[in-house]
Amino acid sequence: MAVNKMEKITIIAESEKEEMILQAIQGMQAIEIKDFFHSNVDSSYIKKHFASTLLELDGSQKKRFQEMQTEIQEALTFIERYSEKTAKKKRVKRQTCTLSSLEKGFDAVKITGYLKEIATLKKKLALIETTRKDLLAKEKWLAHWQYLDIVPNKNSLESTELLLGSISSANQSEFLLEIEKISSVYIEEIYHSQNHVYYSLIYLKNMESDLDGVLNQYSFHPFEYPYDILPKEAYLENKEALTALVKEEKQVKINLSAYREHLEELYLAEEMTYALIHREEAKKHLLNTSYFFIMQGWIPVDEKQELSSVLKEVLPSDEVYMAFDQPTKDEIQSDIPVKLKNNGLVAPFEMLTEMYSLPKYDEIDPTPIMTPFYMVFFGMMVADIGYGLIMLLGALIALKTLVLPRGMKRFADFFLILSFPTIVWGFIYGSFFGGALPKILFGINLPFPILSTTEDVNTILILSVIFGFIQLLTGLMVNGIELTKRKRYLDSISESFAWQGLLIGILIVVLGMMLFDNDGLMTAGIIVAVISALSIVIVPIIQTKSKIKGVAKGLYNLYGVTGYIGDLVSYTRLMALGISGGSIAAAFNMLVAFMPPVARFTVGILLIIALHALNLFLSLLSAYVHGARLQYVEFFGKFYMGGGRAFNPLKTEEKYMNIEKKSKVKE
């Protein structure tokens, strides 16, 4: 398959129908809306004749939806974090539905009511938390003074004063000695902490000046006692208030737990607000007047019939105008988005192309060409029947039992497909969780391993290079065909076909020398290689006005043969990773096998599972990364440029559910 063909769509309808049409388009998730005033449309006619009726976008609706979304998210977080832990958790199960069914189930009034009630509980909890902090601070303070047996406010005399305060523990001894020197002062220690000592002092008022000097000298910190009851009584009252506060908090959390029953409604309401916000954002790209609106966008050709059917369901065909136009050359170069279209086997591998760069609209999609190579390379690097079966079962279980987000589903499909080459190469190497397959089974001689990772290392190495050689030739062939289609015939020779001839000629020479010992074959290879090399040098001479520069350029291009040698060496990683993964697995098996029988069948089982899980993860990661690297550096570099802009249709967020077209969902 290839890049999905696009057409430019124009829709004109009454202003009252705008929301209805946008909802239908959003449910399809197949139209990218263009900014009308930043496109190549000549809008001077509209500005001239409809200037008085043009409308500015009102952002109040979008702001309202954003505020509601924020409130919903805060409410969900609050419920999950603070509701009673014993309450039954009711999580939303991911599902597939249409946008229209989601919108029908959205009751803004009910959700607003929930949010107000939850906000009230949130305020109560916040007040409880503030009160608790105050009470705990008072408790700590009263704990220091609970042994004071008088109430200062009720024990004032005309001739004496009661003073409460604290000093640093380091100054205690000197402070007491100085106090003893002052007559008519009674001092009592109330509490002694690690760093401070708390005192009550009773003294004659006429001794205040003498006492002040000592207090200032030792940084005595006085304070006023605020209660009309004894500290011990105040301490107990504070404890009772804390106990009552705990009960109140528990009751609030129990009340909050009741909203767990409405979690699904809140999750779906959040999903709906995302959809409404995206729809409001799309409106700023439209041309709006008091009477009508104009929308332009890009639509895949195969979605045109679906769009017509969807719009017919929401309004009569004579109430909406639709026109489809082919993209212009300028739009193809600078504006048109790219959407890949491949069959079910190839589609999961599109994410590898997207990670590198999407093709331009008029460029070939490399995904179908890359897929078989990536499958072979991945299987060769993991190469274990057991690991392949785990991938197969894991992916199948996930796909059959869960509704996965689109990205995760693509990953599951990706590894499901890759499990098959992994199993095949596992049979070739004769590896099952690092153990060798039996030579004889039920009296039948089995051919495994077809290639031994210990005895056939050189053969595997040569096979890796052969696969790389084939992929390089394929990349050059694709490049030559694409250049020929663009009528760049000389470039197709110097950049593609001549290089293919040079590489094939060198291969023929090597085969003639090392495998067949045939002089005729060697001569043929040399002739092919020389003609190809001359083509690489001569074509730049023909294309360049300055023949000296042409010669220099041709010789420099020919020097690129060293890069091809480096590319072929890169493919040896297929051998290295395949052998290393199997060797590590075998080493883990050997490690557990050395354990005593009791340990082997207890701790050893857990250990072998953990070790093989680690090796599986590392093997998959290595194969994924190095397999992609071979495509990006060695393969794509031969024919692929990329630089396309991804297709970005008006759609929903799909945070909690998958939104599908009505034709794909049974409602």
Automatic annotation (TrEMBL):
Transmembrane residue ranges: 373-399, 411-437, 457-476, 497-516, 522-542, 574-595, 601-625
Major location category of this protein: membrane
Stored Pfam families: V_ATPase_I
Topological relation to the membrane, as annotated: Multi-pass membrane protein
GO molecular function, one term: ATPase binding
Name this polypeptide is given: V-type ATP synthase subunit I
InterPro entries: V-ATPase_116kDa_su (IPR002490)
GO biological process: vacuolar acidification
Compartment list: Membrane
Keywords (A to Z) from UniProt: Ion transport, Membrane, Transmembrane, Transmembrane helix, Transport
GO cellular component: proton-transporting V-type ATPase, V0 domain; vacuolar proton-transporting V-type ATPase complex
Membership in a protein family: Belongs to the V-ATPase 116 kDa subunit family.
